[in-house]
Amino acid sequence: MKTILLHVQADPAVAKRVETALAIARAVDAHLEVLHVTSEDAAAVFQSFGGIDPDRSAERAFDAGEDALEAAVKKELSNEDIQWDYQRVTGSTAGSIVAKAALADLVLAGRLPRNGDSKSAAITVLGDVLMNSASPVFLRGDERDCFDPKGPCVIGWDGSFEVANAVRGGIDLIRQASQVHVVRVTEDGEEVPAGLYPVTDVLEYLSRNGVKAEYTRIAEVDGKVSKTLIDFAEDKGAEMLVVGGYGRSRLGEKLFGGTTHALLKACPIGLMVAH
């Protein structure tokens, strides 16, 4: 893991997201690529509806906010001992992240909306990035001020291609953890079909990469895999939860609820997910 892509935008958690990216970059000795996307939708508002901003004061205020964000992030990074670069573009937020992620090993994003956007818009961007990027996506925990890569890690294993992809793509970060727990959630905690990959496959893969992991099978809590995984992870004092994303229809998850959608919306600890 030598290149980490960090998406920055004007939201309340951007400073903590930068701190998280720095912690990961130091842990795995990676280069940090910062991507600042000015949404083309925001730019179009001022260009297409000039009548609502005749003196361009709103446009100037918006531009000043974007400039202030760039200056603040660059100032923070200039005091650090890692290699980094900063790119500012105008375009589709999800499309710009996906394009840049093609040559990144990890994408670090946020679940909070950009100032002025809705919560659903932020989750839509995350879903688009996850569905269209080959790189794992990392989200800082909602209830943690900082992320410790050396803390325990929990892998939510269901034998799917998606979680196997998350483990493979994130192995350098998983390797930093002091403890690694592989957990399988089933309806009553009973043995179930292995899926594409039996748990022995991931335990062997981890072992070959220098990671000693413990395996646990547990029962679903209140019919929700996401709650079960979070409860288990918090009981273990985990800093990071690793899962596969959108193993079934993304629309189906949105309409009927699903593990990926629930974790993208909220997770108290760091989340690494891949599709």
How would you explain this protein's 3D organization?
The protein has helices at residues 14-28, 40-48, 57-78, 93-101, 119-132, 161-169, 171-174, 199-208, 225-235, 250-256, 259-265, and strands at 3-8, 31-39, 84-91, 106-109, 137-139, 153-156, 180-186, 213-219, 240-244, 270-274. With 275 residues, it is α/β, with parallel strands linked by helices. The chain is globular. The relative contact order is 0.15.
Rg computed from alpha carbons, rounded to a whole number of angstroms: 19 Å
What fraction, in percent, of the residue positions are helical?
40-55%
Largest sheet, spatial ordering of strands: 3-2-1-4-5-10-9-6-7-8
**How many runs of DSSP E, i.e. beta strands?**
10
The description of the largest β-sheet is: 10 strands, mixed
> How many H/I helices?
11
Summed over residues and divided by their number, the pLDDT gives a mean of 91
- Going by helix content, strand content and strand pairing, the class is alpha/beta
Note the topology:
Blueprint: E1 3-8, H1 14-28, E2 31-39, H2 40-48, H3 57-78, E3 84-91, H4 93-101, E4 106-109, H5 119-132, E5 137-139, E6 153-156, H6 161-169, H7 171-174, E7 180-186, H8 199-208, E8 213-219, H9 225-235, E9 240-244, H10 250-256, H11 259-265, E10 270-274
Helix pairs in contact: 4-5
Which features would summarize this protein structure in a list?
single chain; 275 residues; alpha/beta; 10-stranded mixed sheet; 11 helices; 10 strands; 43% helix; 21% strand
